[in-house]
Amino acid sequence: MTVDTESMDAVQDWTTLLAEYDYQRPERGQLREGIVMRVEDSQILVDIGAKHEGVIPNQDLRRLPPEMVSGIKNGDTLQVYVMEPESKEGELVLSLNMVQVERDWQEAQTMLENGQIIEAGVVGFNKGGLLVQVGRVRGFVPASQVVNLHSRTGTEGQQSAMTKMVGQNIPLKVIEVDRDRNRLVLSERAAMQRWRQSQKERLLETLEPGAVVTGRVNQLTPFGAFIDLGGADGLAHISELSWQRVNHPREVLQPGQEVQVYVLEVDRDRERIGLSLRRLQPDPWATIDQRYDLGQLIVGEVTNIAPFGVFVRVEEGVEGLIHASELTENGQSPDSLQQGQQVQVKVISLDRQRQRLGLSLRRVDGEGEAAEAAAAPVAEVAEVAATEATSEEEVGA
Question: How far apart are CA 236 and CA 214, in angstroms?
Fold first, then answer.
């Protein structure tokens, strides 16, 4: 049998052309490269290898920056998005705007995989949370993922809070990307946690003892104040808040207050930062012997009453002790005085190094002057024992 070689070649060529045609057939949602054939006032014609040129309509061009559109000219190569392979009018409708949208979806997927933190503007809200704009994609931040919204806050309170956030830029972390459902979900809480952890790591790595930094009071507790240093909290123990006695941190600080602090220690293994406010204040004990002399009469305020004596503040950061034996000649009870009461006392001992000031009430009017020389050593010993007992009580507490 004779084979017609020319006919076979023709069939193969037709099959190849048909395959190429099928391969080039545009489908909705495709990103294709094309060549600009003609730029018109209301549209741009682009050849993407289909059976006819595609059209980028004017309504799509209006969504693009004017400078971008004005820069397009005949012969340029563009990446376009297939909106409609064939419209009712039989046109192949393309989009430049949707190219950027698709790129933004791809970027959102990359951000999800990398855990990247971004900043996006709040453009609106609904009863479920905030609406944000991420490039050309509309994202959603559930109310549970917004830092300043709490589950205990009522609906009206949440609505009011979200209204105030419109127009603000907030840090966000992508937590869900579903292109098919056009769903992009983000979280401000996750972003803040990630950011604070990175800031904490940076601070622990770079912060050194002796540094002076600015922070904001974050939380007050009975044992001290937690101060935000910009992503990481340091603790200023109650004993480091002031040179004077502090019963609770709220006596000297308020939440939200901005303060300068001295870095006492940085424990990188335990991720702890020790801070001090009093180290930035003059130590009143450093020059106390320049202001007080033995036998001097001074006025102070009763701050604490104990079975063994009475503590009196003579100036900010300096307290002295009136031992019970120094109240009156007949051993008056410390309960005879009251906290906040102003009393005149005499200085009977002064130890700058050990930060101890001995005071007497009974010697103010000259009582017991004859016995003063003999009583002073006893009072000194009693004062030391009382102060040490007080310190042990504070440590135990």
Answer: 13
Q: Rounded to whole angstroms, how far apart are CA atoms 219 and 106?
A: 41
Q: DSSP assignment, residue 128?
A: T
For tokens 């005879």, name the residue. Answer: 336
C-alpha–C-alpha distance, residues 136 and 105, integer Å: 9
- pTM to 2 decimal places: 0.51
Angle made by CA atoms 96, 98, 99, in degrees to the nearest 5 = 65
The partner residues of 313 in beta bridges, in order of sequence, read 301, 319
Q: Is 246 helix (H, G, I), strand (E, B) or coil?
A: coil
DSSP E strand stretches across the chain: 31-39, 43-47, 54-57, 77-84, 92-95, 117-126, 129-134, 137-142, 169-178, 183-187, 212-221, 224-228, 233-237, 258-267, 272-276, 297-306, 309-315, 318-323, 342-351, 356-360
Are the beta carbons of 76 and 38 closer than 8 angstroms? Answer: no
261-306 pLDDT, tens digit per residue, is 999 999 988 889 999 999 998 888 888 888 999 999 999 999 888 8
C-alpha 348/C-alpha 332 separation (Å) is 18
Task: Mention every residue, 6+ apart, whose C-beta is less than 8 A from residue 266.
Answer: 204, 207, 208, 209, 272, 273, 274
